[in-house]
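Hi there, hope your week has been kind to you so far. Thanks so much in advance, here it is.
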Amino acid sequence: MDSKTKTISLAHGAGGSLTQKLLDDIIVPSFKNRSFKGGLGLNDLDDGGTIPVQDYEIVATTDAHTVSPLFFPGGDLGTLAACGTINDVAVMGAEPVAMTSAVVMEEGFLISDFKKILNSMNKILNETNVSLISGDTKVMPKGTLDGIIISTTGIGIAKRGTVIVDSGLRPGNKLIISGSIGDHGIALVSKREGLSFETDLISDCAPVNEIIKAAMKPGGITAMKDPTRGGVAACLNEFASKSNVSIWIDEEILPIKNAVKAACDMLGFDPLTITCEGKVVIGVEKDLAEETLNLIKKTKYGKEARIIGEVKTERPGYVILKTFIGGKRIIEMPRGEPIPRVC
C-alpha cells in the first residue's frame, strides 16, 4: 500500500486495482498458512480454494453481500447471496453441493423483508440442488448497520485434477461469454436513482452451474470466471495477467443491451466495468469453441452466449478491444466498481 494511505476507501472493496493492492500488500501477507496439502489457496487468489481428499478436491469459497437496494428488478439480497456463492464454486469446475450463511441484521429490520430474502435464497438453492447446512444470525443495535448483510460459504466437489483455475488460458483459445453484459449493475443503479428507460432493466442474477456443466462436456475449457465486481474488464485483466497472455475482444460482437448502453452513456460508465451476477466468461480450446457455445445456448440462462474474442501471445498481460471503427483500445483493470454496493 502507498505509505500515504491511512484508511480504507470504498474502492478497496470494489474488485479493481485497489482491491488487488489491498490483497497483495495487507491481507495475504498477514497469514502464514495459505493452502492445505497442495490445494489452491490464498496465494492463488482464485474464486475459491481447494482441499484435496483422496480422489477428489473440496472447493470452498466465501462471499459477503451488501447490496443496496435490498430488493431490485430481477432479485433481492437472498437471490444474490445464493447465486454469487454457487457461481464462484461452479466456475472452478466443481459441482456445488452445500452452503453456509451468516446473517447480520440491524435492530428494527422488518421480519417480512427477512422472510422474503430467505425465500429467495431458498428458491435458488432448490433450483441448483444445493443444501444450506449451517449458519449464524446476529443483530446489531439500531443505527450501527445499514439494514442487513449476508456472508456465505459455498462448498463443491470436483474430481482431483479437474479443478479449473483462472490462470489457465493458452494462446489460440477462444473466449465465450454466456450472455449480455452489465445488466445487474445498471438495473440496481436505475432502481436506486429512480431512472427510467424505454425498456425495463432487469438484473441478470442467476446461477450459472448448468451453463458450466454443459460447457464442460466437450472437455476444452482452460479457464473460467464470473464477471462480478469490476465486470468483464476486471475478469479479462485477471485472466491476461495470471495466464501471461493477451486477450483481444471485438466491440462489435459484445452482447450489450440497448438499455444498458443508453444508461451507461447517460451516466458516463463503461459497460465492460459494470457488475454481472449471472454470467460466466470461459476460455476454451479453439477447435472446441463452437461445440461448447452451442451446448451453452441450449441451457436456460445461456441462450445469448457468444464468442467475444481470442487469446494471443503478443503484449502479454493486456486486454485489447477492437473498436467499432477498426481502432484498438487497451481495456485497463478498473480502479474500482463505478457503482457501489451492487453485490
Summary: The chain has a mean pLDDT of 95. The CA atoms of residues 50 and 59 lie 4 Å apart. The two ends are 25 Å apart (CA to CA).
